[in-house]
Amino acid sequence: LPRITHQNRSSFVIFFQAIQIMTGILLDCLGLLWMYLLFTQIVAFGATYTPIALLTAYPFWSSWLFIFSGAFTVLLEKRRSPFLVSYALVVNIISACISVIGLLLLSIEFIKYSKSSKNPLWPHVSTRKLVNSFRNICSY
């Protein structure tokens, strides 16, 4: 097994925090896409549907938390201080809790979709495809 040095550990931390920052950016872009679809669905479908994630503005506030969490952990690797250690730890714990909230919102959206008997709109069609993909993955 390769020996883990401080430089290797630092590279791993920066790599994973870069993934966390990119997740925050992608989540923000997803929120912008949902906003676009929300505003254009009346023209395209003649009906409205508001996703729960947009009602809570989850993509926008959570994405900034993920970005700040990743940035502070990268900053912690560059400069060590007791304040940054405690702040990075707290922000990463909050970030994990926010991820769980996102999973709960997604689960509520799935349940809401499965109980709906209306004609499918864009979120219903995309949710149906996502649920079917998830079932296919879980069946292996």
TrEMBL record:
TM region(s), chain numbering: 12-37, 57-76, 83-108
GO cellular component, one term: plasma membrane
Keyword Coiled coil: no
Biological process annotations from GO: cell surface receptor signaling pathway
Keyword terms, alphabetized: Membrane, Transmembrane, Transmembrane helix
Mode of membrane association: Multi-pass membrane protein
Highest taxon, organism lineage: Eukaryota
Major localization class: membrane
Signal peptide: none
PANTHER family for the chain: MEMBRANE-SPANNING 4-DOMAINS SUBFAMILY A MS4A -RELATED, MEMBRANE-SPANNING 4-DOMAINS, SUBFAMILY A, MEMBER 19
Name of the protein this chain belongs to: Uncharacterized protein
Annotated organism of origin: Piliocolobus tephrosceles (Ugandan red Colobus)
